[in-house]
Amino acid sequence: MCGIVGYVGDKTAVPLLVEGLKKLEYRGYDSAGVAVLDEGSLTVKKSVGKLAALESKLGDEMPQTTVGIGHTRWATHGRPSDRNSHPHTDCTGKIAVVHNGIIENYLELREWLSGQEHAFSSETDTEVLPHLVEEFYTGNLEEAVHRVLGMVKGSYAMVVLHQDEPDKLVAARKDSPLVVGLGDGEYFIASDIPALLNHTRKTYILNDGEVAVLTRQGVKITDSKGNVIPKQVFQVNWSAEAAEKGGYDHFMLKEIHEQPRALRETISSRLAADNTHVILREVGMTAEEINKIRNIRIVACGTASYAGMVGKNVIEKLARIPVEVDIASEFRYCDPLLTPETLVVIISQSGETADTLAALREAKKNGCRVLAVTNVVGSSVSREADDVIYTWAGPEIAVASTKAYITQLAAMYLLALYLGQVRGTVGQELAQELIAELKNIPGKVQRILDGAPLIRDLSQTFTDVEDAFFIGRGLDYAVSMEGSLKLKEISYIHAEAYAAGELKHGTLALIVDKVPVIALATQESLFEKTLSNIQEVRARDAKVIGMVFEGNNQMKKSADYVLYIPRTHQFLAPLLSVVPLQLLAYYVSLARGCDVDKPRNLAKSVTVE
Fold first, then answer.
1. Which of 107, 265, 292, 408 could form a disulfide with 392 if both were Cys (CB 3.0 to 4.6 A apart)?
2. Are residues 228 and 374 in contact, defined by beta-carbon separation less than 8 angstroms?
3. What is the pLDDT of residue 61?
4. Residue 336 within any structural domain of the chain
């Protein structure tokens, strides 16, 4: 997630903008920039790299203007560079825009604007915004912004500055946060509260579809039709440290709650509006090359490897290609059988994991095509792979991965459907059903999050637990491994996941009185068999927590506690079933007094072997 700041008032703007951007550094970024009005003309300064590079470029002679906007960019469209940095401007150099989110129809808009003789200088989706404002501007910036919003599809938090209306900022929000700060004769706008706290604790929290106009005289909020909306002041009463977490107690909890947005941004622009097909422009393979694939090797570490296990299952079912999942740290040393007909899929949140990078290079050395799934534009993995599917989760700060994992799952579904459609192995009816349901997944994740207090209550029973077991079959087994990892890494409970059918081959020796067994049973074609395995652990006096779809009343007869998730196609269940497991791990860790965001002995990005 990028950072936005804006200021209108009577103080020198640039120091305030830079200060605000520093407060948003935790969000992650690869470039930064500001746009201000200097002696009546728009001045833009921006630089790739950290804020220090921007400050150096600004120098000691910063413009003494009292109006400006600033941005820290976390790249999605286009590599980190000066020209791809925000703010972006129009052809006249009078309009500047900063933007968070993704403009899904930017290619269509860019083509149309080019036909209107607009010239572009970056690779970003954002640059269409100032050119659209230029196209529609007839002397009223607010009206022009409203017209632009009627044309763009996707998510945005945007702020617009126009040289001809020097004492005004116009901001808009959809699926990406914006907060207005209310001072005394001065007004702020930011993507998160920390950028405001040194100056005011009175805020307006913008809702989706709202537009804010900031001048020295005050703030006006309107809806999408331009009607003025009365807003209630939100008084911030938490510390600056807590505010950096968006009001959440921990980054992990914040990131769990960001998953609906992360999913929406990862999948929405890649699904056809009529639900007929998946759009993966990032994959440069021709249909002939895809049909020549004889096998796929998915290579990843930790959480990413569990996303790969879900990917194996759905790719084999939908694309009918044999898939193996390899742990990256073992891949080089097992002398893998690789041929030019092998597609190697690399999954890495950071794109810098040392073992995963080594596996990528081994695959390239053996003549394989490499497709990467990563969350970081410009990372080593993204630069060295042949094709890249970006997971637009935004920066993830907590060590225990949540939103990065769930967007990796989403990427696996997109890839499986894409390969299946190209190869003709997935029927149109099934494809349309899955695509339509994928679009509903973010809302269903939100429903699970709304029920978090029930999971918090359940977590209290784990306070003195030292062992826990997760079981499932098929896709449920893959998710069980991720649930087990989450619990062990942040609560320090010894947790293991087993294929439910393997219990009788040794694992039952570990099942004793009151040991928790979390049993996933969302694969309805395997439900009866999983239920039999649950009876096996109940016979040994285990405490069973079952997970099923809403409407399934059989589990409550066999489990001590039942977690219900919204009903979806059983192929897509992992996108929902993992969320209660994340929440359970979080609340158990909290109950046991552990350091949720920074568990012992672990680091966020593993750049050594």
1. 265
2. no
3. 65
4. yes
Same domain, 354 and 425: yes
Q: Are residues 236 and 346 in the same domain?
A: no
Domain boundary among 217, 243, 269: 243
Note if the bond before 580 is cis, omega within 30 degrees.
Answer: no
Considering the domain architecture, whether residues 107 and 183 belong to the same structural domain is answered as yes
Q: Residue 442: inside a domain, yes or no?
A: no
Angle at 19 between CA 71 and CA 188, to 5 degrees: 70
Structure tokens at 275: 């639900």
**φ and ψ of 215, to 5 deg:** -135, 175
Which residues lie below 8 Å from residue 505, measured CB to CB, with a gap of 6+? none
The closest alpha carbon to 131, from 87, 85, 90, 172, belongs to 90
The CATH number that applies at residue 48 is 3.60.20.10
pLDDT at 607: 36
- Are 145 and 268 found together in one domain? no
- CB within 8 Å of 302: residues ≥ 6 apart: 401, 485
Q: Is residue 437 part of a domain?
A: no
Same domain, 215 and 135: yes
Per-residue model confidence (pLDDT) at position 28 = 59
Point out which residues pair with 171 in neighbouring strands: 159, 212
Residue listed under structure tokens 């449920």: 476
Q: Is 605 helix (H, G, I), strand (E, B) or coil?
A: coil
Range of the domain at 125: 3-243
Please name the residues in contact with 89: beta carbons below 8 A apart, sequence gap of 6 or more: 35, 42, 44, 95, 96, 97, 130
Active-site residue list: 2, 604
Which distant-in-sequence residues (6+ apart) come within 8 Å of 188 by Cβ? 5, 6, 7, 16, 20, 180, 181, 195, 196, 199, 200
Same domain, 159 and 120: yes
**CB atoms inside a 10 Å sphere around CB 326:** 18
- Measured CA to CA, the distance from residue 575 to residue 302 in angstroms comes to 18
Supply the DSSP symbol for 502: G
Q: How many structural domains compose the chain?
A: 3
Residues 298 and 357 placed together within one structural domain of the fold: yes
Calpha distance 564→367 (Å, rounded): 46
Q: Say what the pLDDT of residue 105 is.
A: 92
pLDDT at residue number 513: 81
Q: Which residues in the chain show pLDDT less than 70?
A: 1, 25-28, 60-62, 238-243, 378, 602-609
Please answer whether residues 154 and 101 qualify as being in contact, where contact means their C-beta atoms are separated by less than 8 angstroms.
yes
Here the CATH number for the domain that contains residue 371 is: 3.40.50.10490
Name the pTM for this structure: 0.74
Sequence-ordered list of residues with C-beta below 8 angstroms from that of 56, at least 6 positions apart, any chain: 47
The DSSP secondary-structure symbol of 164 reads T
